[in-house]
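Incident log, entry 3
Record: Ribosomal large subunit pseudouridine synthase D (462 residues)
Problem: checksum mismatch between cached and fresh output.
Input:
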Amino acid sequence: MKKKKKNFLPFCLESQFSNSQLSPKPEVAKPLPMLSSHAAALASLPSSLPFLRRSARLRLSTSLLSSLASTSSVDPSPPVRSKYGGIRLEETVEVGSEKSRLDAWIASRMHDVSRSRIVASIRSGLVTVNGRAVDKVSYKVKGGDVVSCTVSELQPLRAEAEDIPLDIVYEDEHVIVVNKPPHMVVHPAPGNPNGTLVNAILHHCKVSTFTWRTNSASLLEEGVDSSDEEIEVFHVDEFPTGGNGSQVGEALVRPGIVHRLDKGTSGLLVVAKDEHAHAHLAEQFKLHTIKRVYVSLTIGVPKGHTARVEVPIGRDPNNRLRMIATPSSSNRYARHAASRYKVIEVLAGGACALVEWRLETGRTHQIRAHAKYIGVPLLGDEVYGGTKNMVTSLLRAKNPSHFHDNTFETITKLDRPCLHALSLGFNHPHTGEFLQFSRPPPDDFCQILDFLQSITESASDN
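Fresh output:
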């Protein structure tokens, strides 16, 4: 007998429009007067998302919400300056301490500055030991040494337009909403100069190249994505010219990344096309009025059906490519972070779960760090403990033996954390209209989910 496909529990947003409105065609939004405040937007928030249905390709109906609420007028953002450039450290190595690499010792004293930024400072001759310049990062410092370090200024980075396909969910002359695929880096950085979302958007907007100076030190740290609150401003450096020498893009389009997703995270992201839009969206992120819903697969099931995790997040002192959630005051650089989760479905006898997340703050790797803290790392998140060996062992322990072979084969195909930015809502920076978009997870996420649900249904039948 053919099994009836199972409906998911409702997610988070109440459908107010028909499905025909879920993928608006690119259009130009006409400026309207700002009509209301954030309070009106919050008062009009809905309470449930449409249904998820299990299938070989996860189907997710989406909804749009309408609210004539907006931010107050915000002046265009000023040019970004280096956040840590020029900061000076002068300290004596504790007597009796073991010898340590120069870069590692400085990094242990300057927690918010990336290791690569410190390395650049050393190689630039901005570090002295006992009054003598040292440009070797592996130089060993010992007890009693006096170390002086001045953090180097960031060098402007340059990006070029590349013809890379984009899944554009919505576009007008002010903003673009993109469904980012997994494995795509959002913006160029040392180690990832090409193939990024910014490179693709430059081509889409007919901008040839631009340069910018970032205010986020962690951009120089390969593998670490910055938080939503660290806003970038991109200044166009050069426009392509036509045969008659006229510039393309007379409005001087300035693509601006207002928030970011980790390289391995898929889903929705909004990009500003002008400084006015950038400033308004940045203010919405600052006030935490942007509505974001994520969906993940976790190893294990979180305690309680719903809960709020409020634990500060800072850089892991033992691994600078990772963040850590710590409730104690041991990490004085940790920042306030709060996430809400809801268990949508328990999968494979409790070995995994489909979990919805809502962010109250936008810290680097927030969901990943909080999931690890509560003991349910994201499936496929090797950096935060969600290893393939861990989930394979758990699935085999909790489920019949005839699933074991397929378990190993399916799990080994996964090469990223199972995390997807499902829904994104914001006030349009020019019209004040509240726009909301949703997109289902990509195939790799859906295939794993389908496999786990098949185990769940088989166990239920037995």
